Amino acid sequence: MKLSVVIPSYNEEKNLKKDVLSQVKEYLDLQDFEYEVIIVDDGSTDSSVELIKKFIARFDNFKLLQNKHGGKAIAVMSGMEVAVGDIILFTDMDQATPIDQLKYLLPEFDNDFDIVIGSRQGRKGAPLVRKISAWGFSILRAIILGLPFSDTQCGFKAFNKKSVERIVPRIKSEWGILHTKGGAVNAGFDVELLYLAKKYGFKIAEVGVQWKYVDTERVQVIKDALAAIYDMFRIRINDLRSKY
After folding, report:
1. pLDDT, tens digit, 9 for 90 and up, residues 14-50
2. 3-state class of 62 per DSSP?
3. What is the rounded average pLDDT for all residues in the chain?
4. For residue 82, how many other CB atoms are within 10 A of its CB?
5. Which of 26, 212, 230, 243 falls 20 to 30 Å from 33 in CA-CA distance?
6. DSSP class of 119
């Protein structure tokens, strides 16, 4: 199987009712390769699981993995661990970056890249406070961790199987415990993935993708920013202590 698509889900009733899964399926069905879609529910309290089950009952290559509530990071990693595709993509249920942007990522694997990350162009429609926080985050990321990428936080990233097997077991224990109620975007998770990928010598390509702002209560700017700053220092300290 060439491609596994991992989609984390936490209280996604609104997006599911927009039939986003059909959009994913329709695009992937047009491709000339075998694929699977793994939806990982992060302990939803709304009707998400019921809606997902109703959809996937019709399609053998759509699967549901149910977790207790632990945040986006552990949901994504749970899906990545059971994925069987040669390439594993994770993408958001809201499809802020549409699935058709995969066409820009896949060719880079033929150029011997191990990981290909989407980079949002312009962030059109995003509130000013989110643009400012993203700018500040990028500065701190460069200072603390020395990551050279312009956008580490786009929820549209693809990995070959080798990189997943090397990185995910190293960091999975850091995630899954929530200290606040509600959704957790775990911004530091993307940074930790890329920091270790760079440390382990994997080749990483960053490519521009379309992105549209989708309002979501899961993004809480102040809380998420503080958590991300904490995670950047934690990652740096872990590395200095040879934990990786």
Report:
1. 999 999 999 999 999 999 999 999 999 999 999 999 9
2. strand
3. 92
4. 13
5. 212
6. E
Query: 114-136 pLDDT, tens per residue?
Result: 999 999 976 666 666 666 666 67
Residue closest to 183 by CA, chosen among 3, 67, 42, 32 = 42
Rounded to the nearest 5 percent, the helix, strand and coil shares of the chain are 45, 20, 35
The closest of 243, 142, 240 to 194, measured between CA atoms, is: 142
pTM for this predicted structure: 0.91
pLDDT greater than 60 at residue 218: no
Burial of 228 (0-12, 13-18, 19+ CB in 10 A): buried
Q: Tokens for 120?
A: 């949002």
Q: CB of 39 within 8 A of CB of 64? A: yes
**Which residue in the block uniquely carries the two structure tokens 């202590």?**
241
Find out whether 40 and 114 touch, Cβ atoms under 8 Å. Answer: no
Predicted pLDDT at 207: 98
d(CA 63, CA 1): 15
